[in-house]
Amino acid sequence: MDWEPAIKDFEGFLKLEKGLSANSIEAYLADIRKLIQFMEIRQMPGGPETLKHDQLHQFLVWINELDLSARTQARILSGLKAFYRYLLLDDLIEKDPTALLEGPRLGRKLPEVLTVSEIDRILQKIDLSKPEGRRNKAMLEVLYSCGLRVSELVGLRLSNLYRNEEFIRVIGKGDKERLVPISKKALKEIDLYLPDRNSLVIRPGSEDVLFLNRRGRMLTRVMVFTIVKELASAAGIKKAVSPHTFRHSFATHLVEGGADLRAVQEMLGHESIITTEIYTHLDREYLREAIISFHPRSGK
Fold it and tell me: What CATH number is given for 116-298 in this structure?
């Protein structure tokens, strides 16, 4: 059984027999195509009838490692279950391999994800009249627009900004480097912050560090955590918000918008899902297009 005819038949089933809206149908189909992407990456041949429980479980582990929210993982699983129930109902398969699959209890508990409006509310609580106001706004825009870990954020260097290309060079875990697209919005906030930064007495060793404290030194991780928590509280957000919440929100908003999972993984700097060779040859312009097309800060 080929994937495309099965997907086409499933689309007709959802439209004619279930009466679902076009948006709901597209969400179901997008979830199935994520599974096909996974199979291509893992070089798994065959159609939907060839997949077993263990392989589908591997797929769920994969999307969990992409830092997607538990809600998004559960929705993807729901889409797959609906697809296989249809195949079973239509006698296209003899056994449903998703029957025993469980929701996102796949390792560590992921933080909650912020909506775009909640992120905007947090940013609106930054007092730009204070000396640290411009820095904090630029910092959080970079955190969200690039999906950085807090350690990557505080270690970001001026020399790591490739303004014309709209990329930043990030030093991740194990001193691994990667290039990540940065939005025009984040670059604009950096430009607004730089005059304040350059007016500081910058300490030796911190000359190239982008985000500095008032003593002209690199920010600590604890300070970034404190800033984020205080702003979230001021915005009236009851969720447990940390800098990592912005990273999860970045990944979730991209995937829910339809971004390719391989591009999201490359931008997050994850290497544990599959061999890095598959991702090192991804075209940088392709990654930038993923941000432009699917990230809420793209301006579209």
Answer: 1.10.443.10
